[in-house]
Predict the 3D structure of the following.
Amino acid sequence: QVQLVESGGGLVQPGGSLRLSCAASGSIFSIYAMAWYRQAPGKQRELVASITTGGSTNYADSVKGRFTISRDNAKNTVYLQMNSLKPEDTAVYYCNAHISTIAPMKSYWGQGTQVTVSS
């Protein structure tokens, strides 16, 4: 059984910063790509940022230069540092990871953490 547990969401004023964390636990053999997605009310879930095992990153155009994704492979944890936050960043943020256990690799999701940017 694999679990992804997110933390770090909350309410922040425009221009502020938040750091999200997502820790994977369970009977893990290997963790491959990890990513953050978000879903705003009435909108589809979208990719925010992703990172490979080797550290290569990819960002949505809307967050480039403001958000930074990183990972600590020793801790099975992925982070999302969010700076210069805007009201349009308000959404539920979900962690995603491709993980192999005794079973072949599959995609796992966290439960989501709310980020609200408002004055």
User: Anything to note?
Assistant: The radius of gyration is 14 Å. The mean pLDDT is 97. Residues 4 and 24 are 5 Å apart (CA to CA). The first strand starts at residue 2 and ends at 7.
